[in-house]
Amino acid sequence: VPQGEIARVVTLDTSGTSGPPKRFYFTRDDQELTLEFFRHGMSVFTRPGERVLILLPCHREGCVGDLLYTALQRLGAQPVKHGVVRSLPETLETMEAERIEALVGIPAQVGALARYAAAKDRPVRLKNVLLSTDHVPGSVAANVAAQFGCEVFGHFGMTEMGLGGGVECRAHAGYHAFAADIWFEVIDPVTLRPVPDGEYGEVVITTLRRRGMPLIRYRTGDVSRILPGVCPCGSSLLRLERLTRRLGAGVRIGADELHLCDLDEALFSLPGLLDFKAVISGPEDKRRLRIHAAVLDAPFSPGADAVARAATGIGSVARAVGDGCLSVEAETEKVADWVPMHAGKRTIFHEEGACR
């Protein structure tokens, strides 16, 4: 299309995608497709009149939070723009002042918010929470559900696919794909051929109605599988299993690989832990894993020893430690508020930078 029809240009240079920066172009019609998906997806668990807090980037026209705001208005809900969490006390005050009934946010941030509210004995009850923009650890979803007394849903989307890809229904049996706009395949990353439904591989997308910059068999780098059969909710739409890892993002430790999702499940299950940063250093036969954790300034929060034990309890880590090719260290920082350990998609870092 002519450049004059392009309404939004996004350059990806800090997300989880690998390789050089990529630039993507969207027309207004392309963004309308995202609005359509957001409206239908949110209607699964949002009712007209409900007050929904948006804890995503939302102050630039055409960004994810701005589009979600418009979609929720079309649904008849009452969205409240907030932006990503910068201060736990301020966000909690907004939730109380605005009488928030549901929210959409980043998993680690919403998990920290739930723990902070509980620690300060300021109970907040929500109806629903949607976690998006990064993979959703089961330990975080369980914590959010328990602390806010709500049902937690997951969303899968990427800028490249127009932000909307798939969302969970109340059966919580995988992401229902936005099949009207995206053709999903799961391929063998070596042969590049599709694998049978039910087998794991790399998720590949082809956009069906995109005009500004169509994508044909675009490799996402995400690992999942197509779930066979009909969803318990009765829908026959294609379903993807919840994504947890990316190709090439694991760290070799002995005979195994360590993925961030493994650390997430182990560490976010610790009471009082808000966030952490994991750094790997050293050669493959003598790795060193260092974990810096931010924890609530509370007596029940874990110390460095508890964080290290939780990490060592992961099967791949335990085997590598036992073989003598990995050492695990941890340090904790008690915080009154909270600052994210890393902006953008979370990952394991090499001492000199992000681990790919």
List the main descriptive attributes of the protein structure presented here.
five-stranded mixed beta sheet; 22 strands; 8 helices; nine-stranded mixed beta sheet; 356 residues; single chain; alpha/beta
What is the topology?
Blueprint: E1 6-12, E2 22-27, H1 28-42, E3 51-55, H2 64-75, E4 78-81, H3 88-97, E5 102-105, H4 107-119, E6 128-131, H5 138-148, E7 151-156, E8 166-168, E9 175-177, E10 182-187, E11 201-207, E12 218-224, E13 226-227, E14 239-240, E15 245-246, E16 251-253, E17 256-258, H6 260-267, E18 273-281, E19 287-296, H7 304-312, H8 315-322, E20 326-335, E21 349-350, E22 353-354
Parallel strand pairs: 3-4, 3-5, 5-6, 6-7, 18-21, 19-20
Antiparallel strand pairs: 1-2, 7-8, 8-9, 9-14, 10-11, 11-12, 12-15, 13-14, 16-17, 18-19, 21-22
Helix pairs in contact: 1-2, 3-4, 4-5
